[in-house]
Design goal:
By secondary structure, the protein is α+β, with helices and mostly antiparallel strands. The protein has one domain. Helices cover 22% and strands 40% of the residues. It has three helices and six strands. The protein has a six-stranded antiparallel sheet. β4 and β5 form a beta hairpin. It is globular. The termini are far apart.
Length: 120
Amino acid sequence: MIKFVCKGFYGSSRKTWHGYISKLVYMGSHLEISIVLSQPITACVCKTLSGFFVYFAHYECGVNLGSLFDIDGNYGRLAAIFDDKDAFTVAYAISKVGDLLSSSRNKRITACYREEDLPF
């Protein structure tokens, strides 16, 4: 379980609370994040040509994100799906593990074979 601190305005004041990621699966092309809210949700985050995209299968909707680390910007987009506290929690969860997708990975080296070495 990954624990992180969330800060944001909801209600009438600025509050601080803890958020939790109960499961994280890195598939190479995308992340599946299980975030503990009032009901646990799964967010699938993937990299696209224009930035990033997060999809919530339970809600059958998703949003485009310009950056995984822009919490205020992502909060604004996620507020269309979640209430204020949950939108901040999801934005913080994505930024907590976003470096897995945003950093470049080592490229595979293709093996070179001569035609006479191939079995067919």
